[in-house]
Amino acid sequence: MFRSLKRMIALSALMLSVAACGTSVTQAPTGVSGQSKARVLAFAGKQGPILLQVSGEPFREGKAETAALSARILSPLYPEVPQGFTVNPQQAGAPQFRFRLAFDPIASTSPGRVCSAGTSNPLSYDRRPSRQALFMVFCRADVPIAAVKALSDRMNTLQDPKFRDLLMQSARQMFAADPNDTGSLGILEFDPKPRIKLNPLEGIF
C-alpha cells in the first residue's frame, strides 16, 4: 500500500514538473516598480476598456481573431480594468495605454521596441518549429510600463488549450509584486522621455 502511495506521489510530481516545463514566463525590466505598474494599470482601467494589439501571425486563424480572442480571455482578469479590453481604438478609454502582444519576435527585442513598433517600423520575427515566444507589454504610447517574455510549446491554432494558459500566465506575471519595491509614488522617469507623474490623489498626468 505504501509503495503504491509513493508511486502515485512520484507520478503526480513528475506530471506537474512536465506541465510546468511547457510554459515559462519572466518579467522584462522596464524601470517601473511593481507597485507603480499596478497604479498605472488602475488609472488606465478607470478611463474605459484598454486597447489590445497583436503583432505576428503564428496561428492559422490570423491576427484579427488572435487579438479578438486574447481580448476576451484577458478581459475578466484584472479588477483594475472593469471594462476589460478592446481591439477597437475608438472604443478604448485612453488609447495611448495599450497591451501589445508580439508573437515570435527576435530574441533581442526590447519592451520599448514592442511599444514603438508600427507599420513603418515593424518588428522582426523568428518563428521556431518547436517553441513559441510571446512578448506581452503594457505601454503608454511608446513607453513600456510592464512587460513579460514567455516561451511555450509551439501552437498552430487558437483552439489549443495551451493558448489560454500562455496568455493568463503572462498577464498575471506582468504585475507581480517586486520584492525591491518600496511602494513609493512620485516621478517615474524613462529614457528617453516622456515622464509619468503618479499622484496618490489625482492619478497620472
From TrEMBL:
Signal peptide boundaries: 1-22
Q: Does the keyword Signal apply?
A: yes
Q: Which domain of life is it from?
A: Bacteria
Assigned keywords, A-Z: Signal
Its protein name is Lipoprotein
Organism encoding this protein: Nisaea acidiphila
- Lineage of the organism: Bacteria, Pseudomonadati, Pseudomonadota, Alphaproteobacteria, Rhodospirillales
